[in-house]
Amino acid sequence: MSLRDLLPLVWANLRRARGRVALTAVGVTIGTAALLVLISLGAGLQRLSTEFTSGSDLTTIHLYPRIAYRVVQGAELAGMASADIPTRCGSPMDAEPIVDEAMRERFAALPGVAWVAVHETLLGAAEIEYGALRGSSVVRGVEPALLAQMGLDVARGAADWGRGEAVIGADFAAALYDPAQSDVAQRRSTPAPDLLGERLTLRLTTLDAEGRELHREVRVRVVGVLAPRGWLYDDGLFLLERDVVELNTWMHAGRAGQRRDPARQGYSGVIIQAADLGSTVAVEAALAELGFPVYTERQQLEEWAGFFTTLQLFLGGVGALALLVAAFGISNTMQMAIHERTHEIGLMKALGATHRDVTLIFLAESAGIGALGGAGGVLTGGLLVALMRLGGSIRLAGLPSTSAHVPPWLPLFAVSFAGLVGVVAGTYPARRAARLEPLIALKYE
Fold first, then answer.
1. Integer angstrom CA distances of residue 61 from 119, 123, 282, 285
2. Is 406 found in the same domain as 313?
3. Distant-in-sequence, close-in-space partners of 392: CB < 8 Å, separation ≥ 6
4. CA torsion sign, 228 to 232 to 238 to 242?
5. b vs e for 37-46, b when ≥16 Cβ sit within 10 Å of the residue's Cβ?
6. Domain range for residue 285?
7. Residue 149 forms part of a structural domain
């Protein structure tokens, strides 16, 4: 039997039992819609994670090593370490070496390293004020020439700055909020201020040797705004390195007469640029051998990719279970069709239809039911995803409304998979129909 003869016959048979076919296809529609929505959620989460790390350079390795620095008793209340404990981000890290000038030169000599740069990170919390707006940010002390080396371009304002001046990341202003606005959506809908040329206040807090709070206000003027570069920098605040060194001296050891000296006591921030992506893994291994815990964006992306692949497989499996339930409905429908059309099958075989012809007819009918239900499921699932995104955008006022995202390949895959489920579900009924003896089938009432 040719395809030209098969398709009109199958369509006529499906139309003849359209009520039963429609009810069976509804089950496939529900299963396909569930499959599409669940896989869309997993794909959307993966896309959001990719957007979150967009602009990241996977050949760049950032280290925030401990520093050989002793601070006063009780300083943990201000985001620092307790007495007489060498610190790395406020945690005991005695086994990790410091990155002084000698270690920096050792880094630069490693195979595969293009260059090494150091910067001073503010070793404590700073509240940022601009009028009624508040916020917080990672405060880095860098020399202006280092920005270009780090791949950071100034989009507006000056590419050079001096004492008491600052450059901010692309999203720094948008992260400021008004504490009087309790509604998060209202905060997000408030336009971000233009901070270029404006003055910001940094409020610093630390403790003295007796545990009493000390406060300091630092006024800085914004002279430049960086172009978007990725989450690692877009919320940042950049001052001159000597300014941040002076602030760290005040926050940690100035009261004990110990001045902060990064070249001797250890740099708080190190940037290592690998020559290429192939060299990055070797550089990471070399740093680990030197005793530095390395966790790079490349490693993070690899972990996320594995996680989201597993998540999509899991969610797809849950959706496939719904289609499995629908498969029983298809099988039952085809069994009923054989029961009603036994005489017709016998007549076809008496007129010369082969086992293969009968099998193809019933497999095509079951596949057609699956494909029809799959097409309905794609439309239903697509509508559900659209409603989720619409409802989320209303609630979150312009932020990403939902993680659901329908990849271009998914609708075709869903319809094809539903059709395949129909074929599998109709295999047994089709073979049963093909094995009917013509004489017995013709006598069947």
1. 13, 20, 12, 12
2. yes
3. 400, 401, 402
4. negative
5. bbbbbbbbbb
6. 60-293
7. yes
| 33 falls within a domain | yes
**Tokens describing residue 202:** 């940094």
Is residue 298 in a domain? no
- Report the alpha-carbon distance of residue 426 to residue 359 in Å, rounded: 9
Q: How many domains does the chain have?
A: 2
The verdict on residue 299 lying in a domain is: no
Q: Are residues 199 and 321 in the same domain?
A: no
Mean pLDDT of each 10-residue bin along the chain, 445 residues long: 76 83 89 86 72 64 74 37 37 66 90 89 88 90 85 87 92 89 64 92 84 87 90 88 89 62 86 86 88 77 77 78 84 84 80 83 89 92 83 43 73 90 89 79 62
How far out from the chain centre does Cα 420 lie?
32
**Beta bridge partners of residue 222, listed in sequence order:** 166
Q: Report the interhelical angle of 297-340 vs 277-289 (nearest 10°).
A: 120
236, 318: one domain: no
Contact between residue 161 and residue 144 where contact means Cβ atoms under 8 Å apart:
yes
- The DSSP line for 329-374 is HHHHHHHHHHHHTHHHHHHHHHTT--HHHHHHHHHHHHHHHHHHHH
28's tokens: 């496939």
* Spatial CB neighbours of 442, under 8 Å, sequence gap ≥ 6: 343, 346, 347, 350
Same domain as 259, residue 349: no
Q: Give percent helix, percent strand, percent coil of the chain, each to the nearest 5.
A: 55, 15, 30
pTM over 0.70: no
The DSSP symbol for 223 reads E
For residue 296, give the 3-state DSSP assignment.
coil
Sequence-ordered alpha helix ranges (H) in 226-354: 231-234, 241-248, 262-265, 277-289, 297-340, 342-350
- Residue of 303, 234, 298, 295 whose CA lies nearest to 65: 295
Do 104 and 170 reside in the same domain of the chain?
A: yes
Do 140 and 280 share a structural domain? yes
